[in-house]
Input
Amino acid sequence: MPTSFKALAELCEKLEKTTKRLLMIQLVADFLKRLEPDEVKPAVSMILGRPLPTYSQKTLEVSWATLSEIIKRITEVEWKVFMSIFGKTGDIGSATKTVFEKSKVKKQATLLERELTIKEVKRSFEAIAEAAGQGSREKKERQIEVLLSMASPLEAKYLVKIFIGEMRTGFSEGLMEQAVSKAYQVPLDVMQKASMVVGDICEVAEIARKKGLEGLSAAEFKVFRPVKLMLAQMASNVAEALKEHGGKTAFEYKLDGARVQIHKLDNEVKIFSRRLTDVTKSLPEIVEIVRKNVNAKEAILEGEVIAVDSLGNPVPFQHLMRRFKRVHKIEDAAEKIPVRLYLFDILYLNGKSLISLPYIERRKILAENSGDIPLTEQIITKNRKDAEKFLKQALDDGHEGLMAKKPESVYTPGIRGKRWLKIKPVLEPLDLVIVAAEYGYGRRHAWLSDYYLAARDAEKGEFLIVGKTFKGLTDAEMVEMTRQLKELAVKEEGRRVLVVPKIVVEVAYNEIQKSPKYKCGMALRFARINRIRDDKTPEDADTIQRVREIYERQFLKKGRYKTE
Ligand code: AMP
Output
């Protein structure tokens, strides 16, 4: 029998009420066991708060402004009811549930309500994503309205949460891997490995359900389906990196650009951004370079694209991001903002995965297969002085610092480990999410120009404010930011607007102080926005745990300075 969406919503409600990880895993595993094979993929996706599969290049393109209008229309409940609940809980889903419960119109229309199935909801999401071209906005709205009209208050709560991508149950992808392994009795390590190469836990769960251990063991990379990126942790200096990597490591320039994953099959090339979105159309000259230089039939490569000036010197990241967003008038942009590609890794070549090979071997294979495309500048050394000289050289050349990569390390997709370390000589900036903003004064009175910056709580999924700033953006950026934030607005409190956490910014600061001002007990001092991180999602933002780590490390450093 098809599983209802109600059952999924009830499961999420139970997850929301507990922080016990083992219990969460058990609840989800029990649920997964009862699903029909074709329900596994959409159910896993929805439990994680994703309307569509990770690798799908489609998005719903539905703003909170649109969604809230539809909720108002269906329920006819006074909006201040929503605002008052939202003010108390900060949770859009819960506030939606309450207005649905209070809606007289909705109660009279319970005839319209009928048991939605998981597959029906999935089809609705797909239809919303697929609506394009003229009249697409109306089509999307009609689909959403039909879906929400059929939903009970609890279902509406979770539909809305999935729409805006904010589940807040604390049930992460890592826990999902454990739940799938338990439900379908497949070893966790095999699950995790398959998840790495397939790049999508929803698809892996389906393989586990339909083909079991055998299917999972055979899972491999597929060209044109992006793989999650290996990520780096921070190191304070080159000495720490050398020590962490057993005395010898591969230092490389850390270029201040945008990460790209390049897939090639015969003459076709696709480029994916750090968020794994397809940016091929924005970077035609990179496609051309790869076509010309990479002779292999099939390959997945990684590198960094940087913007350069007419002399070939690197220019700030903002210029580059304009290129990534541009899909029209490309030739014009290519002339004004030239970009250059540097490669640093290869994951797959002619039917074979290379990720279990040591980094130095992958680099060798990369060099043999990249023609004239430059690789990132590299030295492999045991010597601290040489490494420091190399760091200085990188900074003098206008780059951010160094990466240190353990020479014998394998490539671990999606994992932020110590095998890759980044060394940047300043206090590491934080990637934070804007959760509210205030109108400015004087010249800025019409702009949302003062931003509340929040870090993600990795355990609970909520966003905790750690600072506020009006510094760092240009006037033009503030105008654009105001437009975007207004679309994400959930609630206005005088001059302050609370927004759906969506926009990530990189924030520099001088110190993290203890402070009662915010719930987390810490506050950034002299925060300023370095840049808007369009390439990051709120899930990629820094966590409150990381902020605390930096906060604590400051004391270690201060203590040491005193004794030195
Ligand atoms: P972060 O985004 O601060 O976590 O730093 C890691 C990022 O540095 C990667 O995602 C790349 O975009 C970038 N990067 C620049 N140069 C390199 C390099 N040589 N190797 C790996 N990543 C690099």
Q: What stands out?
A: The chain is about 45% helix and 20% strand. The chain has three domains: 5-164, 234-423, 430-556.
